[in-house]
Amino acid sequence: MATGKQIKKAKEQIDRSSLYSLAEAMELIKKTSFAKFDESVDVSVRLGVDPRKADQMVRGAVVLPNGIGKDVRVLVFAKGDKVQEAEAAGADYVGGDDLVEKIQGGWFEFDTAIAAPDMMGVVGKIGRLLGPRGLMPNPKVGTVTPEVGKAVQEAKSGKIEYRVEKAGIIHAPVGRVSFDADKLSENLLSLLDALIKAKPSSAKGTYLKKISVSSTMGAGLNLDASELQAQLR
After folding, report:
1. Residue 122 domain-assigned (yes or no)
2. Same domain (yes/no): 38, 141
3. How far apart are CA 96 and CA 58, in angstroms?
């Protein structure tokens, strides 16, 4: 359990009014971490879009080069030879109606769900259960695909999904405090690159309006968006 002194000391090292370079921010997050567990490092990006407009919804997925430091439990809805393909790729659970029944009974011991296209009729039965939890397979993020083996491998290696919220903000994990600072930086840049490529053509003005990064228990550090975009050019 962190003490008040630890929290105060950590906060004193962070200037909330400053814009930090990516390298400075990642080093500070590691330096000021005081939790007894390996905290997640998360990024928040405020986008210059209006999510209420269908043509300005930003959603997708990206495979982070250094993973997220978490063992991802993957469930696959498949039948026929796709069952063996999914199992060979390392899926934790593979099935059809049997998995639907378990989920209807309140079982959600998995982190991501993938479905072969011919299984969506079965998956649709539990759409109202999976959707609110962000677990519904979707072709837009590559979780409804005939290439279930590839999808499982990507999920296991650090594929994350992102979706802009009503306030125009995207939240996503980019690793753990135990990661090297350069690996955290690589992951964050990969996410930003994906967001820039996903920019709606109808979005006008500044697209990356504000970017901040923090650990689970730590204070947020504001990043210099122009410097980050320069690194991606």
Report:
1. yes
2. no
3. 30
* Contact call for residues 216 and 176 (beta carbons, < 8 A): no
pLDDT in tens, 98-131: 999 999 999 999 999 999 999 999 999 999 999 9
Q: Distances from the Cα of 175 to the Cαs of 15, 43, 73, 75, in angstroms?
A: 23, 10, 17, 22
pTM (whole model) above 0.85: no
What pLDDT was estimated at residue 1?
47
pLDDT band at 3 (very low <50, low <70, confident <90, very high): low
Is 46 among the domain residues?
yes
| C-alpha dist (Å) from residue 28 to 14, 102, 181, 214 | 8, 44, 9, 10
Residue whose entry in the numeric block shows the structure tokens 């439990």: 73
Instruction: Give the CATH number, domain containing residue 205.
Output: 3.30.190.20
Same domain assignment for residues 112 and 142: yes
> Does residue 19 lie in a domain region?
yes
For residues 25, 29, 30 and 35, what is the CA-based torsion angle, rounded to 10 degrees? 180
